Amino acid sequence: MSLVTRIFTQRAHSSQLSRLFCLLGVVSIAFLSNLSLAAERLTLTGSSTVAPLALEMAKRFEKNNPDVRIDVQTGGSSRGVNDARVGLADIGMVSRALKESEQDLTAHLIALDGIGIIVHSSNTVKELSRQQIIDIYQGKIRNWADVDGPNLEITVVNKAEGRSTLELFLHFFELKNSQIRPQVVIGDNQQGIKTVSGNPGAIGYVSIGTAEFEHNRGTPIKLLPMDGKEATVKGVASGEYPLSRPLNLVTKAQPEGFAASFIEFAQSTDVLDLIENQFFVAP
Amino acid sequence: MIVAETLAPRLSEDIIESRAPAHIKVNELAIYYGKKLAVNGISLSLHRGKITALIGPSGCGKTSFLTTLNQLSKLNNQVTVTGEIHFDGENLTQNNVDLLSLRRRVGMIFQKPNPFPLSIFKNLDIPLKEHGFKNRAERIEKIENALKAVGLWDEVKDRLNTSALSLSGGQQQRLCIARALVLEPEVLLMDEPCSALDPISSGIVEELISSLRDKYTVVIVTHNLAQAKRISDYTAFFWTQNGAGKLIEFNNTRQLFSGPKDERTAAYISGIKG
Amino acid sequence: MIDRAFSLGIYAIIALVIATFGWIIGDVIIKGISVVSWEFLISEPEDAGRAGGIAPILVSTLYVLIIALVIALPLGISAAIWLAEFSQNQSHTLHVGIILDVLAGVPSIVYGLFGNAFFCIYLGLGYSLLSGGLTLACMILPVFIRTCESGIRSVQSDWRLGGLALGMRRSVVIWKILLPAAQPAIIAGLILSIGRATAETAALLFTSGYVDRMPESIFDSARVLAVHIYDLTMNVTGGDETAYGSALILIVLIILLNTLAQGFIDSWFKRSGHYR
Amino acid sequence: MGALSFVCAALLCLILGFLLYESWSLVADGRWLSFFSQTGWYPLEGLFGMTPMIFASLVLTFGSLVIALPVGLACAIFLEFYAKGWVKKSFQSLLNLLAGIPSVVLGLWGLTELVPLIGQIKAPGTSVLAGAVVLSLMILPTLALTSYAALTSVDRSILAGAQALGLTQKTQILAIAVPAARSGIMSGVLLASARALGETMVVLMVAGNVVQMPSSLFAPVRALTANIALEMAYALGGHRASLYVSGLLLTIIVWILAYLASYLFNKGRTVSHD
What we know:
heterotetramer, B: alpha/beta, Rossmann fold, ten-stranded mixed β-sheet, 12 helices, 10 strands, 26% strand, C: mainly alpha, MetI-like fold, two-stranded antiparallel ribbon, 2 strands, 78% helix
């Protein structure tokens, strides 16, 4: 600090610039020497639905294998596929089944999840039919009063393209994204929950696991049943809940080294409690 | 006196040359900016230990000529110089001249005082270090001597580490002269060293320049004819002819002012033209 | 009468401006101060940043800044010296100048696009502190070069000539006389660049990523303060409080740097003014 | 030294090169033309209509100017004609301080304070209005300070003349001073709009991100920059290339604005010197 102050305060100054350079040089050398100490690293990117679960698994895995460092980043399932494919990530996180065009990758199932419709907890609406949901998302129903709710304008929250939640939602309701008239477009599940929890008239759809997790923390949202089936983890586990999906870890080829042992760990019984804590269903 | 005036110019130059040896001898020097001729026809001798004044109207090539003597003209790659400048047997217009050692031997003082934005001490210390004086005690001694030589020592000895820019204009100019002297040059080039100063400072600097006589060969550009008359031993008169500067007359100062041989010189010094 | 109404109008707008910015700054300070503590600065974020502190995020911010500076500083200063001192070819200098001005105007998100394509994928650095730092270096270089260049150019040519007339080498004149004289401008440019780099979010989203853990090497992905604020605001329910805390820290950091820059610019003008 | 600066120049060319390289697949076969003809942005369905987002960007920028320009001018007038002494100094440093607030912090404030307010009028609150207001707060300090500089450089004698005619202060300011400073003010406006157009975080956080033509002040919209930030993370193939094209497009618009700004600035300078 004193060196920096001196650099900044002295008036006669022929050598201070060189001192600054030296300072930077020393710091950069310190950084470079840091490089050799870096541990073995695994990078996971992709679905924001899988990310919190993968992060918890990674923490436990790191505890057992102190030489490994696992970085988890979100960005959507498509990014998980893409990053795993081009090698930006060792493992991609994908919250859906792999498509035909993605058969060059290998999927490793770690859990199941459902997608649930959420509204603000102050909303008196108890249930919405499929057609009502379709109409709301197409902008044909604009007020909650039309579906036996409060006299409140509906704020439609949609997911950004590239999110598997969106793809599953569209597929399930046989909609095209261009037919949807949203008022807000969000990326991550968390952002959807935050938007809905801060807006009494909002409706959105997110991972049931994430929604239950948030709901139990006291976030003011509630899950609506679908086709009369409660949107709960139990419903997903029993297969009754209609809108569910697999959560996968994907790799480019057969995984090796730590990637292989991490996937093996993620599929083992050692992580069942983690899956449960995150309100997902073990396969 | 009367004899000298009536004699032909050739004779007077012969007399001069026989009295004081030439330190720098310039022969048919011409300066071009790009393709345009800027100055030509300069042939003269600068005598060791004497003060030579260059006079003439603005834009007639005095300063351009001055900068060829320490090859500062090379900074501008548009400038080409032809002819010869003999300095201790070396022709400066050749390309193989060691510029750094040349500039150490030929110091220069600029119109505007230009002390570096450093302390008074460092202004003199950095050039010394640059020219290989490794011993600090030796450098301190040289600096003290140079400052004494310009009469600045008593004024600044207690604040050598303060900024040179805090000095007055006259003090700054004397510091610049000290900075040139500290390298122990043989020749000093001065480009209107007093013109940016107030009359009192100007007088002090002028006295200082006078006191440099015999120790250094001084070439001074000045617009102040009275000053040229007061301090110089020789005077060269430049004039613009056909768009290019030209040396018209070069003579012993007393003779040039009392009996100019060219009518343009006569007109200029009597204040009719320029 | 007309004058009075006009003056009142002006004062009303000024009051509005002060009130609005007072609201923003007051908001950040009041909501932020309740979160900020020594603990906050030195502990790891917990529960996606809702609790805990910002230690790894501060460290990552500094990492990215220092990487950017280690690259941009020497490169920028030498480019500025070259532009101001050595380039004899006027049109060449002009062209480089135009390229720099153009690049200075490129939106930061576009630097993010470039950084992602070049550093992360093409050079294979992945989402890492290094990619982020390099991207920021590219982003701050144009402005930094231009500030330094004008600083060096504005150094009086008398000093240049004076140095050369004393038989000093050109490199010595530049290093010992011109650069120290231009130093306030260089440091001001430097600090402004630091301010810009510290506040940057968009360019880092796809280059350094947003892993909120303590980085162990420059190849680790990590989250800087600005990205942390963004993530807390947008993606974390109940993350607003810590977002305000982080915002307070970020603003204090930047004000500190800006004040320093301003001080240097002032002293720079004072000194050259004194001389003239 | 030269080599280093060439590295530097090369690096900067690389940026342009890579942007072009990444977007080339769309530019080369002319598919980029469909960005303007298609109406919607549904990359999953192969629709890449950028027009709504270009419009949103322009509307947000324009809206922010509509708010910030009068307020910024008022601040400049206040600084130049009303404020004195410490008031002036502290208002100036307030503006400087505000100029240093990171845009992400403004976004945070907008999302947590302003958006809920607007949401009470019409849900959800994330809208053109919110985006324009927060953007205007972002550009206000710059706009005020550049306008102030322009007003300061207006020739004092013009104002003295106006005063001598007995004009009211309002007329002096609005009819004489502001028009005389208009080129400086305009160049500030153009720079500010370039900044607003290139800003990502503010519009990403408070404008709602729905791809649609802005139909009302309360309609949520998605700007070009926000689109890049939102979709870059998972865009592939043509989708990714289209984001790079939008980056290029943005850059070109910003350059044009910056060029106009410097043109006006220089013009203003030469005029005031004449």
